[in-house]
TrEMBL record:
It comes from the Bacteria. The gene is pyrF. CDD domains: OMP_decarboxylase_like. The lineage of its organism: Bacteria, Bacillati, Cyanobacteriota, Cyanophyceae, Nostocales. Its EC number is 4.1.1.23. The active site is at residues 60, 62, 65. Residues 6-231 form the Orotidine 5'-phosphate decarboxylase domain. This is Orotidine 5'-phosphate decarboxylase.
Length: 239
């Protein structure tokens, strides 16, 4: 897989028209993320469009509910034939286990390939301070992220979402077969916005990320094509 195929761009817009405009403008992008804003606004239609263009799809619905509800949602989501699907690790072991079974069932009933199911370890917008003071978690942030990833791995999930700052530790502990997806990636020229634990694209890949999710530095740039090229060049020249 070349480096460009490791960059997932989120379609964080609220209309199908805006989403299609981005997909058409950035035709070099092979892996798109459909998240809560677009899916809640427009439903699954965008998934068919992306498939008709042979794009890979990360359906990022971040399920967080009791096991029975998560099971039903994962079964339905897996029937769309997407490549990646998310659930929060904080659902707990039973819900994650139900989710792993449900994606197999849903995909098999629909006759499609099951998605890789990955767990959100800790949202990349949460800082150490917020973890301690707002969420009242009495662990150091890297230790907490690792423990969520290990719990997901133990119940059979395919991987985890973490920030680039934790990915080296997760790669070392969880091994090469555990899929690690990093949002919260920022080139040095981009604003961090609400991301609290960033590194650059090249740093994140070097630290062991399988995929990077990079949104606003590309999609909100004055020239998204140029921003995409710049990121690819920066990665290429740093390796
Ligand atoms: O699951 C995700 O993709 C995700 C998890 C996480 O912890 N942090 C995070 O930012 N994301 C998503 O990654 C994307 C990051 O977008 P930018 O901050 O614009 O690069 C958004 O679509 C977020 O929903």
């Amino acid at each position: 897989m070349n480096t460009e195929q490791k960059i997932i761009v989120p379609l964080d817009v609220s209309t199908l028209e805006e989403a299609l405009a981005l997909v058409e403008r950035l035709e070099q992008v092979s892996f798109w993320k459909v998240g809560l804003e677009l899916f809640v606004s427009c439903g699954p239609k965008i998934l068919e469009v992306l498939k008709s263009k042979s794009k890979r799809i990360f359906l990022d619905l971040k399920f967080h509910d009791i096991p029975n509800t998560v099971r039903g949602a994962c079964r339905a989501a897996a029937s769309y034939g997407v490549d990646l699907l998310t659930i929060h690790a904080t659902c707990g072991k039973d819900a994650m286990k139900a989710a792993t079974e449900a994606v197999q069932e849903g995909a098999s009933l629909a006759g499609v390939k099951p998605p890789k199911l990955i767990a959100i370890s800790l949202l990349t917008s949460i800082s150490s301070r917020q973890l301690a003071f707002d969420l009242k978690i009495p662990l150091e942030l890297p230790e907490y992220v690792l423990s969520m990833a290990l719990m997901a791995q133990e119940v059979g999930l395919d991987g985890a979402v973490c920030s680039p700052q934790e990915v080296a530790q997760l790669r070392q502990t969880c091994g090469d077969d555990f899929l690690l997806v990093c949002p919260g990636v920022r080139p040095i020229w981009a604003e961090s916005g609400d991301q609290a634990r960033s590194l650059t694209p090249a740093q994140a890949l070097k630290a062991g990320a399988d995929y990077l999710v990079i949104g606003r530095p590309i999609t909100a740039a004055a020239n998204p094509d140029r921003a995409w090229e710049k990121i690819c060049e920066e990665i290429a020249t740093s390796t």
